[in-house]
Amino acid sequence: MNRTVLRLDRVLLALFGLVLVVVGVAALLWTTGTLAEYVDGVPDSLDTSGATTAASQTWWPYATGAVALLLAIVAVWWMLAHLPARSVPEQDLPGSSRAMRLRIDRGAVADATAHAAQQIPSVRRSTATLRDEGSELVLSLLVTVDPATDLPDLATRLDDLVADAATVLPDERLRSRTTVRTRTSRRSDRASRVE
How many Å apart are CA 2 and CA 55, to the nearest integer? Predict the structure, then answer.
């Protein structure tokens, strides 16, 4: 999900909430008769004969079907827009301008972080991803280590790697999530997460 979808969510939610409040207050004032005191021409009751007549027309099923299809397409698009991003695009760096754009591949930052983690002697395997998660850019690092690993030392080294990534990729939204798996056998790993 990108920032445009988040902004659209907020705008539509605000508009929808405002409409609900206005309609709710108007309905309350109408049922109590207060609305008629302030607005001229407010009917005492609602005439639904127009809706009944429209529903009996031959075009009505086609019109409602077309509206339902349109709503289904919008709903599918909306759900797909809210899926987490599979790949993270490039990002502009500080110092970029219209004449000169400095960009960095955020996926390359994740790959370099995973490679650097792999160089730590106790680390047997490591992977890293960099994804937009809501309003945050999250660097997720997964490392598998031996059972005899000095965890405080490992945590310090991993913190240094994350700090290096933050230096290479300056973004106020950048957060990290590190998961350490202890290799207990060839088939099973025990995992612990460090935020």
Answer: 41
